[in-house]
Design a protein that fits this description.
Helix 2 packs parallel to helix 7. This protein starts with a helix and ends in a 6-residue tail after the last helix. It is globular. It has 23 helices and no strands. Helices cover 82% and strands 0% of the residues. The longest helix is centred in the middle third of the chain and has 36 residues. The relative contact order is 0.12. The chain is mainly alpha-helical and 519 residues long. It has a domain of 187 residues.
């Protein structure tokens, strides 16, 4: 399966999931707004969601997938299944023990996540109650990550990419179904998280069963040599691949020390800019990792380098205009998506600048996902970890400095700065190892794409004032105005890209037809 086709499958299903995710967030904004209950739930959801991102899109996938894919190719499917069973049973017992301890010591965990809650006893008690409900989700999602790695290694991308759709549908259902039976809307959302974990696990278990590769989780957990190797690779990858999530945890900790709704403001802004990050970056990175692993193991270094350049072009083709659009349309986007019910104009005014700051770092975060896979495909998880540790420290220092002047927006600024530093250091290291060699096609593409984005931003900034009346009107008026602005921006960008011949359509067709494995 080609890189473009694999990325398109993952990206399209991820897009569907993110649409349902926006529906979920719109319901949260409508019922809870930016309030004490919202802050409490976002803290309760942050840790299991952090581990979801870390495992499903980061450390576990980076460590497990190259090992599993290599075993399928060299030792056969049964040996690979035995390895996944050993890894899965060990993972199940460890994560279950961690979950039990976390539930017992939840107040301490919450205070580590949100120390500012210590001055608001009611909010702290609610966050503790909701966190105890959501913690079992970690057990479910760890097994989901294992099964997702198995299926991705077998090029079964669609089943894994569709998994988050079930998560969002379950959380939407939980908000509607559980509300009459629980004390607060936050409790309903928390139970929806648990339901989401169960739905995702059953979904992937069924597909693993159909392929004959369902891990035998009932085996007695043993620390076999292969499991030891996996753990040694996961530990550094947990920092390297999870730097964005670690920074987000740090953001929650510091935001809890600011205004009472700072956590909610950052959450809503984060949800918007994560749409292109998930649809584009994760889609391409998911398809790229097994491809790079096979090429590097086969000694096809030049082919691997070419794939990296093509992957960067692919993510920036969509990522750069996404960042430019978020920058130009931050306020209309927040108005159109969230300004209903308890979410008011003052909340929009607080969230929009944070979205602009996050958007500035979006291209860097997309490139990080591509460059990190170069290390993981080479079975090097330590180098990204070292770079990530440095960037986490820079992020913390920038947070402390900028939040003094810009409050929660300063936290978003620090995230973008750390992202650009991370991407730069990864690129420099890979260039020295001759695993990343930007060619002329990439540089020309980058220049033409930036020009197209500037033209698009100019058009959007000129047209937005003309739509202000509609953007402040009824729901249907906001939707039409926002859709119109996005359509115009997209049309300007596409026209500029075609006029400058920034995209080689013949290359895209060749990529779409090409296979991920050597002929």
């Amino acid at each position: 399966m080609s890189l473009v086709r694999s990325s398109a499958i993952v990206g399209s299903l991820t897009l569907v999931s993110r649409v349902f995710g926006f529906v979920r967030d719109m319901l949260v904004a409508y019922f809870l707004g930016a309030s004490m209950a919202t802050d409490a739930f976002f803290v309760a959801f942050k840790l299991p969601n952090f581990l979801r991102r870390l495992f499903a899109e980061g450390a576990f996938n980076a460590g497990f997938l190259p090992m599993f894919a290599g075993m399928v190719k060299t030792q056969g499917r049964e040996a690979a299944r035995q390895f996944s069973s050993e890894a899965g049973s060990f993972l199940l017992w460890v994560v279950s023990a961690v979950t039990i301890l976390a539930i017992l010591f939840t107040p301490h965990v919450v205070l580590l996540m949100a120390p500012g809650f210590s001055h608001e006893p009611e909010k702290l008690d609610l966050a503790v109650a909701l966190t105890r409900i959501t913690f079992p989700y970690i057990v479910f999602i760890s097994l989901v990550s294992l099964m997702g790695g198995v299926l991705n290694s077998l090029d079964k991308f669609a089943a894994v990419a569709a998994t988050p759709i079930g998560m969002n549908l379950a959380m939407i259902a939980g908000l509607w179904l559980f509300r009459p039976f629980v004390p607060t809307d936050g409790h309903a959302l928390a139970w929806g998280v648990v339901l989401a974990g169960l739905v995702q696990l059953v979904w992937l278990a069924w597909f693993c069963h159909r392929t004959g590769m369902l891990p035998r989780l009932w085996l007695r957990p043993r620390l076999t040599p292969q499991v030891r190797t996996l753990l040694n690779r996961i530990a550094p990858a947990a920092v390297g691949a999870g730097v964005m999530q670690i920074n987000q945890i740090m953001d929650v900790v510091l935001a809890s020390l600011l205004t009472s709704n700072a956590i909610s403001f950052l959450y809503y802004a984060d949800r918007i800019y994560e749409l292109p990050l998930g649809v584009i970056g994760i889609a391409v990175a998911t398809a790229l990792l097994p491809l790079l692993s096979k090429e590097i193991k086969a000694g096809n270094r030049e082919v691997a380098v070419r794939h990296v350049n093509q992957a960067i072009m692919l993510v920036l083709l969509f990522g750069l205009p996404s960042a430019a659009g978020l920058f130009a349309l931050s306020t209309p986007i927040i108005q159109g998506l969230f300004q209903y019910g308890r979410f008011n104009a003052a909340d929009t005014a607080a969230v929009a600048p944070a979205l602009v700051a996050f958007a500035a770092g979006l291209p860097a975060l997309l490139v990080i996902k591509i460059l990190s896979n170069c290390f993981y495909a080479s079975e090097d998880t330590k180098t990204p970890m070292k770079i990530a540790v440095l960037c986490i420290g820079v992020n913390f220092v920038c947070n402390i400095v900028f939040m003094q002047f810009f409050a929660h927006v300063g936290i978003a600024i620090a995230t973008s700065i750390a992202g650009w530093l991370n991407a730069s250091l990864l690129a420099r290291t890979l260039h020295r190892r001759q695993l990343f060699q930007p060619d002329r096609a990439l540089m020309v593409f980058l220049g033409k794409t930036l020009l197209a984005c500037l033209l698009m931003m100019g058009a959007l900034l000129a047209l937005t004032p003309l739509a202000e009346g509609w953007l402040a009107g009824a729901v249907i008026h906001r939707a039409v105005a926002l859709a119109g602005l996005v359509s115009v921006g997209g049309a300007v960008y596409v026209t500029a890209m075609l006029a400058t011949k920034a995209v080689d359509l013949a290359l895209i067709r060749r990529l779409r037809r090409s296979r991920t494995t050597p002929a």
